[in-house]
Amino acid sequence: MKYRKTLTVLVLLLFACALVFVCALNTVLERKPYSSTSPSGRYLLQHASAGGLLVPFGGQGYLQIIDLKEPQRVYRTPLIKDWSLDLRMFEDDNSISIFGLEFIKATKTYIIQWPDWKHHWLDKFISNTPYEFCAETDGNCY
User: Fold this and answer.
1) Is residue 50 exposed (0-12), middle (13-18) or buried (19+ Cβ within 10 Å)?
2) Is 60 exceeded by the pLDDT of residue 142?
3) Sign of the CA dihedral with 112 first, then 117, 119, and 124 last
4) DSSP string of 6-61?
5) Is the pLDDT of residue 34 over 90?
6) For 115-126, what is each residue's pLDDT tens digit?
7) How far is residue 97 from each of residues 16, 30, 46, 132, measured CA to CA in Å?
8) Is pLDDT of 56 > 80?
9) Radius of gyration from C-alpha coordinates of the chain
10) How far apart are the C-alpha atoms of 111 and 99, rounded to whole Å?
11) Under a CB-based contact definition with an 8 Å cutoff, are residues 127 and 62 in contact?
12) DSSP 3-state assignment of 84?
């Protein structure tokens, strides 16, 4: 009987922690973004700053691209330092690029090109799009 109460308390505590995590993640993903349309008019680029309980000191954000022909699809990057997200962009038939970040249209993937970029533990929850990191040693980042 004693173990049953302890197990019940542990399960409730675990459930409460999971609920807090899901709510905090939802606040990160539902923040009001700054939006800009690509030169072709087909893509909407949105920069959202992450903050709240999971990113308490701010300074992080993510970029999401929406194909306006398929508005239900949102392609989110992993967390990136806010100061590095500049929505002045270049677009050609193959990709949309902003400084240090490229979205490949055909494969729906990102290429991150900042030499000081580091993974954040929330990336697996925030980013829903495959991405590659291109280090300076690869020689073809820029």
Assistant:
1) buried
2) no
3) negative
4) HHHHHHHHHHHHHHHHHHHHHHHHTSPPEEEE-TTSSEEEEEEEE-SSSSTT--EE
5) no
6) 778 888 888 888
7) 41, 24, 13, 14
8) no
9) 19
10) 11
11) yes
12) helix
Q: Are 44 and 33 in contact (CB under 8 A)?
A: no
Token pair belonging to 137: 């040693």
pLDDT of 65-120, one tens digit each?
A: 999 999 999 999 998 887 666 778 889 999 998 888 899 999 999 999 887 788 88
State the pTM of this model. Answer: 0.72
62 vs 50: CA distance, rounded Å: 7
In this structure, which amino acid lies at residue 5? K
Which two tokens mark 91?
A: 């677009």
Q: Which residues of 103-123 are buried (b: 16+ CB within 10 A; e: fewer)?
A: bebeeeebbbbbeebeebebb
CA angle 63, 86, 103 (to 5 degrees): 45
